[in-house]
Fold this protein.
Amino acid sequence: MTGALQPPVLRTAMMAYPTTRPLLSGKVVSPKMKFDFVEVEPIHHAFAPMAQKQIYDVCEMAVFTFLQAFAYGKPIVLLPVVLAARHQHVCIVYNKNVHASMTPGDLAGKKIGVRAYTQTTGAWVRNILMREHGLKIDSVDWIITEGAHLSEYREPAFVRRAAPGATLISMFMNGEVDAAILGNDLPSDPCVAPVIPNAAQAGPAWQAATGLIPINHMLVVTQQLAQTRPDLILELYDLLRQSKDMAGPQSGPDMKPMGIDAIAPSLELAIELAAEQQIIPRTFSVEELFAPWRAIEKTRT
């Protein structure tokens, strides 16, 4: 007598957030599949190998990385799942030991450091500077320490690489850049101050006024998995819904929505920003992005 077939194992790179921790810890399980959770720290190191070589079956991915991957025809599929989002006004900072003060009006002609020009946090911050404070992005000398996650991409002429071996934090602390865009790596040092006035309140106020979410990371799967096992993609989505429900309500507005209707308005803005900032070569609609997911949904019985 032959043994029962073992459920497929999906190689997965995903951070532990309150909404994903029940799934990652094994509190949410399925008889249809198992997961090989690969720890990648920091998680952005998973984005390039997933976008370029699809080394995972399931992967967290920065939204602007996915937009580039879509533009360059990479075989990955976007799911309507937000894994990470944050208010971005606090993410551009200056060093009070270098500058007595700094506001968005002081940035023209200055050097601003950012890990990569295509970094999602950087794109959202530039949106704030351009639309709320009138900054022209080509009036700034953008200094990057890393290239894009997609090898096909070339940065605009107003972006240049830092010297080999330089780090964003070191350049910020020693004054080689006048300001820096920092997210999870924002140092807790009294010399660090936000460039945007009332930054802590400005982010929630922007969300309240627009109803939009500054999305950082979403979830993607390989095109091969989506085409050959749409049932597993649907099961994955349902597991993430269970995991989110188990985590309970988060404080404030829901920053990690699921479903196209909840995500589409924010994603539309992200697409517009990516084109405006020369991150993608053309615009496309949200429905184009989610066409594979729509096809998967139709298989649900």
User: Anything to note?
Assistant: The chain has two domains: 9-86+214-297, 89-210.
